[in-house]
Amino acid sequence: MQDFFWQNFMLSFLYEDKNRVCIFIDAGNLYHLVLKKININNLEFDFEGLAQWLVNNRTLVDNGKRYYSGSVREKTNDLKSKQALAKQNKLFTQLKKQGWEIKTSKLRFRKEKIIIDQRVTDYKRLLKKGIKEIEYERWREKGIDVKLATDLIVGAVDNKYDTAIVVSSDSDLVPAIDWIRKRKKRRVEYIGFSIADLANKNNPTRPSQTIISYSDIQRVLIVTDIKKFIKSS
Question: How many domains does the chain have?
Fold first, then answer.
C-alpha cells in the first residue's frame, strides 16, 4: 500500500500555487462503505480530525468543510427512528460547533423486495421452504448527490477553491467532476477506501475506478488509516 503520510506531505509542494481546498463528504456513502463495515457509528468518528489531516498545510476556504447527509425522520410509535434522530441531531450539533456546513436531504422510508433466485446464497434451500421473496423496509437517501454536485460546480464558478477534496465513491458525481476540471481548471482530489467487511468477506469496499480516472489526485485509505480517527471512549 502507498505511504499516505508521505503522499500527504508532498501535496503542499506539488500544488503550493493552488492550495485553497474545500472538502466535500458524502456521509451516507462514507458510513455504508467504511464505518458500518468496521462496526463504528458516526458519533464515534472524528470528522474534524479527518478534515485537518486531509487539508495538511494547505488553506481551508471559508465554509470549506461540507457534510452531506440524509436527514432522519421520526416515525410514529417507532423507537428505533426516534433514537436514530436523536443520534443524528447530536452529531449535527457537534459538527456545527466545529464549523462544518451541513447539507441535508430527506430520507424516505420505503418497502423493498428481494426475489429469491440464483443470485441469493442458498436460494434452493429457501425455495424448498416456499420462500419466493423477502420484503423489508429501509430508508433511502434522495438528492444528496445532486446537492454535492451542485456545490462543486457553484464553488468552481465562484472561484471559491482550487482543489475539491471529494470523499465519496458515488459515480453520479463524475459529470460534475469532469466539468469543473475541464471548464474551470479545478483540481479534484479523490479519497477512496479499501476496506474489508467484517460481517461479509465477499462484500469489501473498493475505490471507484471511474472517479479515479476523472480525478487529479487519488488517495486510498485502509483500515489502519481510518482507525486514527476513531474517538477514544
Answer: 1
Question: Cα separation of 37 and 205, whole Å?
Answer: 9
Q: What is the CATH number of the domain that holds 150?
A: 3.40.50.1010
- Decide: 58 and 189 in contact? Cβ < 8 Å: no
Q: Note the pTM of the prediction, 2 decimals.
A: 0.79
- Determine, yes or no, domain membership for 200: yes
DSSP line for 62-128: EEEEEEEEEEP-PPTT-HHHHHHHHHHHHHHHHHHHTT-EEEEEEEEEEEEEEE-STTSTTHHHHHH
The DSSP code for 45 is: B
pLDDT tens, position by position, 67-100: 999 888 777 777 887 898 899 999 999 999 999 9
- The whole-number average pLDDT for the span 90-113 is 84
Residue range(s) defining the domain that contains residue 59? 4-107+141-227
C-alpha cell at 188: 479534484
**156 pLDDT above the threshold of 80:** yes
- Residue 43 belongs to some domain of the structure: yes
**Residue 128 forms part of a structural domain:** no
Amino acid sitting at position 113 = K
In a domain, 173, yes or no: yes
